[in-house]
């Protein structure tokens, strides 16, 4: 990563960078609710690309829930049941990560870029509020959600969209993500892409920033 004198902008992923996630948890929960195996639920997810459609804005909250009810063959599930199972992907939010990001606002322009869904963003903001922290929209200068942009990482178009919309110079910008493909795609545009890999957390990578 460049020295502080040339680094002006920081872009953060959300899942497993700011908030720890368990990608298998929703599958487990929906499997229990539907009395199916986890493999069966995963196969349905992949066959119909439910997550991809939802996270790129092709379907809204209502259509997503209706798809889940139809494909898992249970018309009686309330919205709250589906939302709760869907949100089990989100683990406890480490408040110290939020505090460090708030400190960085003094010296850098901060942005969020996440492949995500409206249900997840509402839940993360509820968690932040309960911790007396600003919402994501308040914490960052701008947030870029895949369902709003209608493009998902690692597509190069989403990184170019962020650079253009926010008026950023790639070489003056660092991007933190846990996914290797996302990092590789951003780096090809000249962004200083940093992969956050366990057991290290974003706090380790932000020590020298």
UniProtKB/TrEMBL annotation:
InterPro entries: HAD-like_sf, HAD-SF_hydro_IA, HAD_sf, PGP-like_dom2. CDD domains: HAD_sEH-N_like. It comes from the Bacteria. It holds the Pfam family Hydrolase. PANTHER family: ALPHA-D-GLUCOSE 1-PHOSPHATE PHOSPHATASE (PTHR43611), FLAVIN MONONUCLEOTIDE HYDROLASE 1, CHLOROPLATIC (PTHR43611:SF3). This is HAD family phosphatase. It comes from Spirosoma foliorum.
